[in-house]
From TrEMBL:
<dbReference type="InterPro" id="IPR013149">
    <property type="entry name" value="ADH-like_C"/>
</dbReference>
<dbReference type="InterPro" id="IPR013154">
    <property type="entry name" value="ADH-like_N"/>
</dbReference>
<dbReference type="InterPro" id="IPR011032">
    <property type="entry name" value="GroES-like_sf"/>
</dbReference>
<feature type="domain" description="Enoyl reductase (ER)">
    <location>
        <begin position="7"/>
        <end position="231"/>
    </location>
</feature>
<dbReference type="InterPro" id="IPR002328">
    <property type="entry name" value="ADH_Zn_CS"/>
</dbReference>
<keyword id="KW-0862">Zinc</keyword>
<dbReference type="GO" id="GO:0016616">
    <property type="term" value="F:oxidoreductase activity, acting on the CH-OH group of donors, NAD or NADP as acceptor"/>
</dbReference>
<protein>
    <submittedName>
        <fullName>L-iditol 2-dehydrogenase</fullName>
    </submittedName>
</protein>
<keyword id="KW-0479">Metal-binding</keyword>
<dbReference type="Pfam" id="PF00107">
    <property type="entry name" value="ADH_zinc_N"/>
</dbReference>
<dbReference type="GO" id="GO:0008270">
    <property type="term" value="F:zinc ion binding"/>
</dbReference>
<dbReference type="InterPro" id="IPR036291">
    <property type="entry name" value="NAD(P)-bd_dom_sf"/>
</dbReference>
<comment type="similarity">
    <text>Belongs to the zinc-containing alcohol dehydrogenase family.</text>
</comment>
<dbReference type="Pfam" id="PF08240">
    <property type="entry name" value="ADH_N"/>
</dbReference>
<keyword id="KW-0560">Oxidoreductase</keyword>
<dbReference type="InterPro" id="IPR020843">
    <property type="entry name" value="ER"/>
</dbReference>
Length: 318
């Protein structure tokens, strides 16, 4: 099979390697595609802790496809089942997953891309945000995740204020139901705008979906007294400083919405399957860029640079 190998920082080669065999309690998935995650960008740049070359397919963890082999002891998954997989070497034509780490995709999703991990992540973040009808929710950073959360929060009856850097992202936020949009340009101007939009009370919920220091600083400023700050951005570039005096004074709850329990991930993916299959959530317009495996470098560049019109890249296998 063909598999991507990170040979050195910023360099990827495509190798021909043996197709993996499933072991006890495992299944093999012939992949149809894999989403490209922004969390790939730091290891791709080559920090000191990275080791090169990587294993074939490494860093890919948003795969979906068809089960084509099962290991021993499996009675919950069958060959031919179309699934979203929580696996970790999905920049390849085949990957191995535990049988309890795949989620069946119903007929309603036939032919549709379904990167289960980020969709499940959105559902988990939404659940942990505890959004209620009538609340005001600020979402900082409207990429793929922020756009999904805008739709989910709006459908839950909340008034969403979307804050993002790119005009394109703000257009997407409006399409996903945001009641208000604010360009992420000036820290103090944003605070004053949100203050005016909320009659000086600020927001019941603030979801930070960028993963950088400034958006985290801004998020703390926008939460009302007794509100909830939800950290959904992936912070992987070092320490963070927080305004603990402000957080204490306002008595806010702070939620790190990143799951590490595989069961929690699977629960989120199952909820995402239900939401998309029922029509409650339509992520298809958010998959803005598609690449063959040979163009994974271009997909990562687009994920890093976020050109106009970009939200989410997928690697698609023929």
């Amino acid at each position: 099979m063909r598999a991507a190998v990170l040979s050195q920082p910023g360099r990827i080669r495509i190798d021909e390697v043996a197709v993996p065999e499933p072991g006890l309690g495992q299944v093999r998935v012939r992949l149809e595609g894999c989403g490209v995650c922004a969390s790939n960008l730091t290891p791709w740049k080559g920090p000191e802790w990275m080791q090169f070359p990587t294993e074939p397919g490494a860093l890919g963890h948003e795969g979906w496809g068809v089960v084509d082999a099962v290991g021993s002891g499996i009675d919950t998954v069958s060959v031919g089942d179309r699934v979203a997989a929580l696996s970790f070497k999905a920049y390849a034509e085949y990957d191995i997953a535990a049988a309890d780490a795949v989620v069946p995709l119903p007929a309603a999703l036939e032919g549709r891309a379904f990167p289960g991990e980020p969709l499940g992540c959105a559902m988990n973040i939404f659940r942990r945000s505890a959004i209620e009808p009538g609340q005001t929710v600020a979402i900082i950073g409207i990429g793929f995740l922020g756009a999904l959360l805008t739709r989910l929060a709006t459908d839950a009856g909340a008034r969403v204020i979307a804050i993002s850097r790119r005009p394109y992202s703000l257009d997407v936020a409006r399409q996903m139901g945001a009641a208000e949009t604010i360009a992420m340009e000036d820290h103090h101007a944003i605070i004053e705008q949100v203050k005016a939009l909320t009659a000086g009370q600020f927001c019941d919920r603030v979801i930070e979906a960028v993963g950088k220091q400034w958006p985290l600083d801004l998020a703390g400023e926008l939460v009302r007294e007794g509100g909830r700050l939800v950290v959904a951005g992936y912070h992987q570039d070092g320490l963070r400083h927080v305004n603990m005096q402000l957080w204490n004074w306002r008595g806010i709850d702070v939620i790190n919405a990143h799951e590490r329990d595989p069961k929690a991930y699977i629960r989120g993916i199952e909820e995402a399957v239900q939401a998309v299959a029922s029509g409650r959530l339509d992520p298809d317009p958010l998959y803005t860029h598609r690449y063959p495996l040979e163009q994974l470098v271009e997909a990562l560049n687009a994920t890093r640079d976020r050109p106009d019109g970009f939200l989410k890249a997928l690697v698609i296998f023929p």
